Amino acid sequence: MTEAPLAQPPSDFRHEPSSRGTQPIVQSLLKVRGLNAWYGESHALHGVDLDIAAGETVTLLGRNGVGKTTTLRAIMGILPKRTGSVRLNGREMIGTPLHKVAAAGLGFVPEERGIFASLTVEENLTLPPVVAKGGFTVEELYALFPNLKERRRSAGTQLSGGEQQMLAIARVLRTGVTLLLLDEPTEGLAPVIVDRIGEIILEMKRRGMTVLLVEQNFRFASRVADRFYVMDHGQIVDGFAAAELPGRMDRLKEALGV
Amino acid sequence: MTMVFGVPVQALLGQLLVGLINGSFYALLSLGLAIIFGLLRIINFAHGAQYMLGAFVAYLLLAYAGIGYWGALILAPLIVGLAGAAIERLALSRLYDLDPLYGLLFTFGLALAIEGSFRYVYGSAGQPYAVPQALTGARNLGFMVLPNYRGWVVVASLAVCIATWLAIEKTKFGAYLRAATENPTLVRAFGVNVPLLLTFTYGLGAALAGLAGVMAAPIYQVSPLMGSNIIIVVFAVVVVGGMGSILGAVVTGYMLGLCEGLTKVFYPEASNIVIFVIMAIVLLIRPAGLFGRTA
Ligand SMILES: Nc1ncnc2c1ncn2[C@@H]1O[C@H](COP(=O)(O)OP(=O)(O)O)[C@@H](O)[C@H]1O
Ligand SMILES: [Mg+2]
User: Fold this and answer.
1) How far is B198 from chain A (nearest CA, A)?
2) Are B59 and B70 in contact (CB under 8 A)?
3) What GO annotations for molecular function exist for this entry (chain A) (predicted)?
């Protein structure tokens, strides 16, 4: 197979990412410019630019290993070695100590879910401090995830994979953060659970939350996303609105190797 | 006289009590070590020095401020804990990104410096510290005579161990501590000030050592070397219990104290090494320790 066309963005693309989306973004909730990040000496992100408006759900696509997880970790500040600019509501996050990032409104659901084995389900759920009003209450979350209520006294890691993913999401919803970074929430889960997670994301949208989602599952992503970014080699190489997805499907599938 | 396995019951119970008292100190000390190791991943070689400091602070409070045992029981752990917190903030916290060996070496050097300074000023001989008035005397339990102070040590250390365990297992602070022990970065990303938690935890571990030191003062005297004598055994306790296991540290502390006592009755020659023999066997059979999670 010849080189995927998406791997060759116009050279000026990195500097004007918003010109690529169909709707021009008036006011970004999250504005990332020239984000570089390293694992030790290994340079993993090469100038990532992206914008997310308040209330949007944006999906980040890309093959395995192109830097999607790294992008979320660099935005969050979990990856300390980074340069560039990450502005949340105009406030610069680079240089902000990691434990103050949540209070600025960023919530993180890691790819590996990060459920604590030595905490019960309920302790896991209530662990992250509430940072702002408007989050889900524990009662609301238990209504949304009845399994978690049933098993609230079990150790967190005794839950099934799907339940652990629900718990990882529920736990951040309680805190009242405005922007959620969600890394491959459907990875390895059964279709019914994937549908359930889709409903949850739609419910989050209804409540005005903003979501940056990393996802490999197109069908799932197209149900929830307003816009897409495509990553390759540690850069954003394309961006388009959800309405353009059907027309691009074939090209995307080829570019993403799915 | 009643005999068990050819040993007078009186002697057996007497040594078991000595074992239980030693075990109380092992438990208190290994509890602090386990908490520190669990969260900071640092083997706190200064733990014995902090125990010794607790005893010396009690001694100095009495000598220079007229503050007796009960005041020292509160103040000495507080002072040793604050000193520990300061050391974590100023020095240990700068070593977290390096190989854990640096933390170990730093605390080892710190222990040598503290113990050396006290030996320089006070010599190696122990200073006596009187049993508090309220706990002098002894009571006859029928099968043996129990000095009141020793009974108090057993009860108080058990109470402190249980309270600490409950605080870790049942409170919000404990949940932060357990979670940060598993994945400090994620807990920090949730907005918990983990660096402060580390400082507090090191201070807490040091304070527990200081508390053990105050309780030990009337029994073992106050000497600059009291910490280095006991800490090697306590490390063995932590290894047998399983590095970082809180419950393991406490249970193993009492258990090995009793084993030591029993050995004194049946085979006194081995009483000084029995704990290390057990450690070697446990390491061979269950390298993660009796209560450790096998990864
Ligand atoms: N902890 C790590 N240490 C070193 N390199 C890493 C680490 N995590 C990821 N990488 C590397 O960074 C690149 C991007 O990885 P990642 O962001 O996980 O990709 P994606 O999420 O898109 O699959 C890959 O080349 C990967 O090998
Ligand atoms: Mg990934």
Assistant:
1) 13
2) no
3) ATP binding; ATP hydrolysis activity; branched-chain amino acid transmembrane transporter activity
Ligand 1 within 6 A of A70 CB?
yes
* B294 touching chain A per CB within 8 A: no
Domain ranges of chain B: 3-285
**Phi, psi of A202, rounded to the nearest 5 degrees:** -65, -40
Question: With contact defined as beta carbons under 8 Å apart, do B204 and B81 qualify?
Answer: yes
Cβ atoms within 10 A of the Cβ of B185, count?
18
Residues contacting residue B231 through CB under 8 Å, at least 6 positions apart: B29, B45, B47, B48, B51
Measure the CA–CA gap between B231 and B224, rounded to whole angstroms.
13
Instruction: Tell me the Cα Rg of chain A.
Output: 18
Q: Is B193 on the interface with A (CB under 8 A)?
A: yes
> SS3 breakdown of chain B: % helix, strand, coil, rounded to 5?
75, 5, 20
Triad A139, A143, A146: Cα angle to 5°: 115
Given phi > 0 = left and psi -120 to 50 = alpha, else beta, which region is A253?
alpha
Q: What is the pLDDT of residues B56-74, one digit of tens each?
A: 999 999 999 999 999 999 9
Rounded to the nearest whole angstrom, what is the distance from the C-alpha of residue A173 to the centroid of ligand 1?
A: 27
Q: Do B187 and A127 touch (CB under 8 A)?
A: yes
Q: Do B190 and A128 touch (CB under 8 A)?
A: yes
Q: Which residues are within 8 A (CB) of B172 and not within 5 positions of it... i.e. 6 or more apart?
A: none
- Determine the Cα–Cα distance for residues A219 and A109; give it in Å rounded to an integer: 21
Give start and end residues of each alpha helix (H) in B171-193. Answer: 172-182, 184-189
B185 and chain A in contact, CB less than 8 A: yes
Query: Hey, what CATH topology would domain B3-285 get?
Result: ABC transporter involved in vitamin B12 uptake, BtuC (1.10.3470)
In order along its 258 residues, chain A shows pLDDT tens digits of 344 444 333 333 333 444 444 454 557 899 999 999 999 999 999 999 999 999 999 999 999 999 999 999 999 999 989 999 999 999 999 999 999 999 999 999 999 999 999 999 999 999 999 999 989 999 999 999 999 999 999 999 999 999 999 999 999 999 999 999 999 999 999 999 999 999 999 999 999 999 999 998 888 998 999 999 999 999 999 999 999 988 888 888 887 876
B169 at interface of A, judged by CB pairs closer than 8 A:
no
Substitution candidate for ligand 1 out of A70, A76, A78, A236 with most atoms within 8 A of CB: A70
User: Does the Cβ of A68 fall within 6 Å of ligand 1?
Assistant: yes
Question: What count of residues does chain B have?
Answer: 295
User: Which residue carries 């990412």 as its tokens?
Assistant: A17
Distance of CA A139 to the CA centre of its chain: 25
Residue B5 has pLDDT above 80, yes or no: no
DSSP A24: P
Ligand 1 mean position, distance from CA A44 (Å): 7
Global pTM value: 0.89
User: Any residues with CB less than 8 A from the CB of A64 and at least 6 apart, and which?
Assistant: none
